[in-house]
């Protein structure tokens, strides 16, 4: 999503002060990337105990690393036209295997009950491109500040009910618009009105029915960065917990049921409110589905307002403590759906990527950075297709799938060495896949190494065997 410029002082006030005014603002949290230079030698990244791994249909342990892919500018006949095959070709060339594809309900269903066949065909074309490069895709039902009724994208205007409450735009600080009375009331109606509940579930049935069997689709992100209405006297953490507990939990159960009516296999991704990025544990309850992924976002308030990373502030540590509570309690894997600061060129940003990626690897099964595009702002690449400053640190070797039990995995960026130790599965698939960024890499392993595509390697191993894999960047 687009990021705000709201100042850290305003966010602190929103977090700590009882909210008697519904437009009290807050900044959006941030996500942790998966790695970058830390110190001369990066230690092995030990997995967070109690947080399950994401797995595929063969039972292999998955790691998803990639980026959000979007077109927020074009809609109607031109919807999704900014996304091209190049996006997926370049993702794979840089060693990524994952895309979070933004789709918008207002484009899918411009009139009640009338679903856009051209839009669905465009989504399929994008998924076909992803499949061509073996990129796994989660379809994200995206909203920013609810939708077009407030000048953004997401929930259609016909599904927006405000009870006549006021809305004032905040140019240059759009996240503050979430705290406008009309926007907050619109979320309440979406969560509570029976006809809107049915309409949202029906939209997901259409998407799941159309794409359930597409080989690129791994799952469905049910709504992006959900928010809600603050009550008088609530501070922001209390409001977030109540919204998550009383409104998001039943909504996710409804939408998961809608997806399951068409797709028994795909993962359903559920997000807390963005407040988790401030180190506030979620109030979400149990989602009664066998394939749930917890998908928080991670944006730091101060960094989003233009500040440099402060290694001593303890923000990443607080976020990690908060974000692991839910997956430990409900035994679900974690995939971080968005992360990445706007200004990557500040003095401590290289350190940020190292600290953040190391943290991510301890508890998550992967991440999608924001955003895979060509240009300025949050774009990962410049117009020529080269990484913008420090964003190249996100591209490193990793095990995209492991046919067995991972003992340890680590990457030392200074030495250019990745090591994986795993015990091969005794049953099911025997094939472990490595994903490698551009450039030359030398692989040694206690197993046969089979290369069949640039930037990828496959390793079959005897059942039950302990396997050590070393991937080393070639000189020059």
Characterize the structure shown.
Helix content is 27%, strand content 19%. It is of the alpha/beta class. A seven-stranded parallel β-sheet has the order 7-6-5-4-3-2-10. A five-stranded antiparallel β-sheet has the order 1-11-14-17-16, with no helix packed on it. It has a four-stranded antiparallel β-sheet with strand order 12-13-18-15, with no helix packed on it. Strand 16 and strand 17 form a beta hairpin. Helix 5 crosses helix 6, helix 6 (194-211) crosses helix 7 and helix 9 packs parallel to helix 10. Mean pLDDT is 90; it is low at 1-45.
Summarize the structure.
This protein is an alpha/beta fold and 476 residues long.
Topology:
Layout: H1 8-16, E1 61-62, E2 64-69, H2 85-93, E3 98-103, H3 105-108, H4 117-132, E4 136-141, H5 181-192, H6 194-211, E5 217-221, H7 236-260, E6 267-270, E7 292-294, E8 297-298, H8 301-304, H9 315-330, E9 338-339, H10 349-363, E10 366-369, E11 398-402, E12 404-412, E13 417-424, E14 431-435, E15 441-445, E16 450-453, E17 456-460, E18 466-473
Parallel strand pairs: 2-3, 2-10, 3-4, 4-5, 5-6, 6-7, 8-9
Antiparallel strand pairs: 1-11, 11-14, 12-13, 13-18, 14-17, 15-18, 16-17
